[in-house]
Amino acid sequence: MKKNITVIKGDGIGPEIVTEAMKVLDKVGAKYGHEFSFHEILAGGCAIDACGKCLPEQSLDACLTGDSVLLGAVGGPKWDGVDKNNRPERALLGIRSAMGLYANLRPAKLFSQLRAASPLNPEIVARGIDFVVVRELIGGVYFGAHDTVEENGEKRATDIMVYSEHEIERIARTAFETARKRRGKVTSVDKANVLDTSRLWREVVTRVSREYPDVAYSDMLVDNTAMQIVKDPSQFDVIVTENMFGDILSDEASMITGSIGMIPSSSLGETKNGMYEPIHGSAPDIAGQNLANPIGTILSGAMMLKYSFDLDEESAEIERAVSAVLDAGYRTADIMDEGGRRVSCSEMGDLICSEIG
Ligand SMILES: NC(=O)c1ccc[n+]([C@@H]2O[C@H](COP(=O)([O-])OP(=O)(O)OC[C@H]3O[C@@H](n4cnc5c(N)ncnc54)[C@H](O)[C@@H]3O)[C@@H](O)[C@H]2O)c1
Ligand SMILES: CC(C)[C@H](C(=O)O)[C@@H](O)C(=O)O
Ligand SMILES: [Mg+2]
Prior knowledge:
Blueprint: E1 2-10, H1 14-32, E2 35-41, H2 45-51, H3 57-65, E3 68-73, H4 88-98, E4 103-109, H5 122-126, E5 130-136, E6 146-151, E7 154-159, H6 165-180, E8 185-190, H7 196-209, E9 216-221, H8 222-231, E10 238-241, H9 243-256, E11 266-268, E12 275-276, H10 295-307, H11 312-327, E13 330-331, E14 341-342, H12 345-356
Parallel strand pairs: 1-2, 1-3, 3-12, 5-10, 8-9, 8-10, 13-14
Antiparallel strand pairs: 4-5, 4-11, 6-7, 11-12
3-isopropylmalic acid (IPM) binds near residues 75, 89, 93, 247 and 279.
Keywords: Amino-acid biosynthesis, Branched-chain amino acid biosynthesis, Cytoplasm, Leucine biosynthesis, Magnesium, Manganese, Metal-binding, NAD, Oxidoreductase
EC number: 1.1.1.85
GO biological process, one term: L-leucine biosynthetic process
């Protein structure tokens, strides 16, 4: 199989972690006889530095016309002062929106080897952590009107949260379909005791749930969910929620699996051309030091093989290799368990490649 992968290394640790994911994809491609070609483009802070625009037109075109996109991370303090419409993060939002990537899947799964790295009580961890946050990605407060005005001698800022029924309906279907392939349970998370968007959210998801009588369905308020994720994460299978709640809950969920550096994500819309990225950011505090954990990005590559290219066996091979390297005790510096063998970002990538053989 020949596939053209658009690559955005981005900023901070982005180039370090994406380089490792490309090495692993090359290795799997060679093993199974596929040709993955990488088309590197600029987006984010590095694109601002190179040409003044966070998302040059040719970069967006490449995302739209390739077979899928692999992204590291964008942003960093260097660009905090740029115009809000040209911030590095706007590039990411622009790509998600232009590609119509409404369904963002963020699996929070604890590798059993990393039990001791979870900050949760061992008894809670022993019950297992394996759920997925299905985050709506191109609606809500991220994409409503934003404004800052000066009134009566002070500034006033507005961010509007908007959801239409069809936007909720399609992400709800993604959640129920996902649950059917897992343990058959959906928890819809909202703030229906306060927000109109959440009341509509709950009404629509409840309606869609009737089409899936085989899936257990319930709803939960977002503040309670934040607490339940640390109290007993084993109760969750699929969490479906709006854009900003999903952003926040997925960072929380990542940490209980040992490190934010472990968690991959897929973003898909109506076609197979999706975007794959770790859920973390550009980690400016450790950038350029070969310290970052590349596993979230490597596993994002595995998700790409599965969801965009239907290469299930090749995808599973990457997951197996990651698991074997963890079994052997290798850890990057972010994983805080005792007795691990500390390795750098590039050593972790090399170890995973050698495991693929
Ligand atoms: N998808 C993206 O491109 C994305 C996502 C989140 C944040 N950001 C941007 O990244 C910048 C930094 O944001 P932040 O500091 O709030 O969040 P962050 O996720 O970059 O970092 C938070 C903490 O986690 C650590 N960390 C993150 N990824 C790691 C990895 N792979 N290995 C080891 N440690 C890791 C960092 O060192 C830091 O201590 C901001 O500009 C933000 O807007 C981008
Ligand atoms: C950088 C930012 C725009 C982005 C988001 O909020 O979606 C990030 O936090 C993420 O989780 O992918
Ligand atoms: Mg985030």
